[in-house]
Amino acid sequence: MKLMPDRHVEVLEIEGMTCDHCVKSVREALAGVSNAVVRSVEIGRAEVDAGPEATREQLVAAVEGAGFDVVGGTSEAAPE
User: Fold this and answer.
1) Mean pLDDT of 41-53
2) Which of 17, 27, 69, 72 has the highest local Cβ count within 10 Å?
3) Do 72 and 63 touch, CB atoms closer than 8 A?
4) Is 24 a domain residue?
5) Is residue 10 domain-resident?
6) Are 70 and 12 in contact (CB under 8 A)?
């Protein structure tokens, strides 16, 4: 998938998710971050296409605000 300029992909490894309700909560929390597009959310993992204004720290804070712990993941810069 080709990203828009200045965008990056954030993959978050998340603990505490056990059901579809958890998935919905995380998806809604991430969707509330300005300039972030949720690619996918499943139990234990979320992937977000984020613009420069949507930092990893903001995404982590959104997930933690929903009651879950981010325990790892990766950041990938958009291809040049």
Assistant:
1) 94
2) 17
3) no
4) yes
5) no
6) yes
Amino acid code (one letter) for 36: A
CA distances from 53 to 11, 13, 15, 56, 74 (A): 17, 21, 25, 10, 18
CATH number, position 49: 3.30.70
Residue given tokens 């790892």 in the structure block = 72
Token digits for 53?
Answer: 């204004």
On whether residue 47 sits in a domain, the answer given is yes
Q: Decide if pLDDT at 2 tops 90.
A: no
Domain that holds residue 26: 18-74
Residue 80 pLDDT exceeds 70 = no
Q: For the segment 15-24, what is each residue's pLDDT rounded down to a tens digit? A: 999 999 999 9
**Tokens representing 38?**
């949720």
pLDDT at 4 > cutoff 60: no
> Does a structural domain hold residue 28?
yes
- Tell me how many domains the chain contains: 1
